[in-house]
């Protein structure tokens, strides 16, 4: 689990320094905050943090859109040392005075390039620069990105203080453990070729990326009709439906998942044997 790379050291530092949050406070002052681009990734980070915090007094809380605000506020007001969330819901809670950033010691930006691609830069800059967060020289900031374009370099310069740049593997490259194949077909042949690949794959867990939400639903219905248990995930599905789709995929009830780029980064799903770009990506990253 990649998230352990930042959760374990941050949570250990918080425990060693002493936890400061109180369930009796109307406004929570988390010591650490992690911003993620999607609800699924935010929830995954939260679940890992909760697992690592088991048996301690450290309390992680998650907040993201698409679900009940009142439920998340109740969780928040029960105490929050580590807050995980998406930019929109975090901004909402800070503006309503439910969260104060004045005591923040650790800021984590996960999948930073993905957040920029999704247009979140203004929201992130507002959270970091205009909502009472300590200066970058008074907090520790960790930023994770699969690519390192100029926009990310600029963001790093603005948010990180005298930072250390670490790379794993070759920036922009794929791991040598992955075998990549290009199959040239016409648009009319794509569905038949996909069913052939899935037939050869058997019950192997297979993730299929498409460009549009409409295509995700149509392709999932088509494959289900062809006898392949299939589910789909995209931004127009209700949050509960998205979580159920991921759970069905993880547990093998639906070994085929059709997804838009909402699932393109950060999600940790064991034993995915095949990843298929049914539609060519519009961006090389």
- Read across the widest sheet, the strand sequence of neighbours is 2-3-1-4-5
CATH topology of the largest domain: Rossmann fold
The portion of residues assigned to helices is: 25-40%
User: Number of helix segments?
Assistant: 10
Indicate the CATH class of the largest domain. Answer: Alpha Beta
How many structural domains in the coordinates?
2
- Indicate the structural class: alpha/beta
Determine the strand fraction and express it as a percent band.
5-15%
Q: Average pLDDT across residues?
A: 89
- Topology as a string of helices (H) and strands (E): HEHEHEHEHHEHHEHEHEE
Q: Please state the oligomeric state of the protein chains shown.
A: single chain
Alpha carbon gap, first and last residue: 22 Å
The CATH level-2 architecture of the largest domain is identified as 3-Layer(aba) Sandwich
Could you give me the name of the CATH homologous superfamily of the largest domain? Answer: P-loop containing nucleotide triphosphate hydrolases
Overall geometric form: globular
The main sheet comes to: 5 strands, parallel
Total beta strand runs: 9
* Unreliable spans: none
The radius of gyration is 20 Å
Pfam families: DEAD, Helicase_C
EC number: 3.6.4.13
Enzyme class: hydrolase
Organism: Nematostella vectensis
């Amino acid at each position: 689990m990649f998230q352990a790379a930042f959760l374990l050291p941050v949570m250990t530092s918080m425990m060693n320094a002493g936890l400061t949050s109180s369930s009796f406070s109307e406004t929570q002052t988390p010591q650490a905050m992690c911003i993620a681009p999607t609800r699924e990734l935010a929830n995954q980070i939260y679940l890992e943090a909760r697992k690592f915090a088991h048996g301690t007094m450290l309390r992680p809380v998650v907040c993201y859109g698409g679900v009940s605000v009142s439920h998340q506020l109740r969780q928040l007001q029960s105490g929050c040392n580590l807050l995980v969330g998406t930019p929109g819901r975090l901004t909402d809670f800070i503006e309503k005075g439910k969260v104060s950033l004045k005591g923040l010691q650790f800021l984590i930006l996960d999948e930073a390039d993905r957040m920029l691609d999704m247009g979140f830069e203004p929201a992130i800059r507002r959270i970091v620069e205009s909502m009472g967060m300590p200066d970058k020289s008074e907090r520790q900031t960790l930023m994770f990105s699969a690519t390192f374009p100029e926009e990310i370099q600029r963001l790093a310069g603005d948010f990180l203080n005298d930072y250390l740049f670490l790379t794993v593997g070759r920036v922009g490259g794929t791991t040598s453990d992955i075998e990549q194949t290009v199959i040239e077909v016409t648009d009319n042949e794509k569905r038949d070729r996909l069913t052939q690949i899935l037939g050869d794959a058997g019950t192997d867990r297979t993730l299929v990326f498409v460009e549009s939400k409409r295509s995700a639903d149509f392709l999932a219905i088509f494959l289900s009709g062809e006898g392949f248990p299939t589910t789909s995930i995209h931004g127009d599905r209700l949050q509960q439906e998205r979580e159920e789709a991921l759970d069905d995929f993880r547990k093998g009830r639906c070994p085929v998942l059709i997804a838009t780029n909402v699932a393109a980064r950060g999600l940790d799903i064991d034993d995915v044997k095949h990843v298929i770009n049914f539609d060519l990506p519009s961006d090389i990253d």
